[in-house]
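If you are new to this repository, start here. Below is one unmodified record pulled from the training split, so you can see the exact layout before writing a loader.
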Amino acid sequence: MINDRSQGGVGPDVSTDGMTYWVSDKQPLTDIKNWRQVTRASFQKLLVAAADKFPAHDPAENEKQSHVTILVHGFNNKFTSATRFYQDLCGRLFDGPDSLGLCILYDWPSRGSSLGYEPDRSHARLCAHETMLCKRRWRPRGLGKINLCSLVSSISS
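And here is the target side for that same chain:
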């Protein structure tokens, strides 16, 4: 997980320390205690190592290729609702023999409300910029296809 939240990754505001990087092999993912914070360099090494394990396919077999997907949740989402959705999505699309590859959650502190997206517009632009920086940083490091999947509406809490 790439996280931009205050209060150790679960807060309602942007972290003044910048983005943080987390890994987990425990569930439920809704509990921050089941995540371990790592450095950006360590996260990148782990990501490249995981992508190196993707099965090799001929470029003509594009539909069989595995991908790294960065999931960006919509507005009005607390840490628990974003990680619950992420855990469910990963269980359906990124586990088992038919896995699409690897999914990373980009969790950001929405300032919105169920009434509208307006308070989040400036922060959403910043998050988009940050995810594009991640994509540019990792692409030359052995990660071929990196997809961004962003939700434009809120996830029910």
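Two things worth knowing about this chain: The helical segments are 40-52, 79-93, 121-138. Residues 1-9+74-117+139-157 form one domain.
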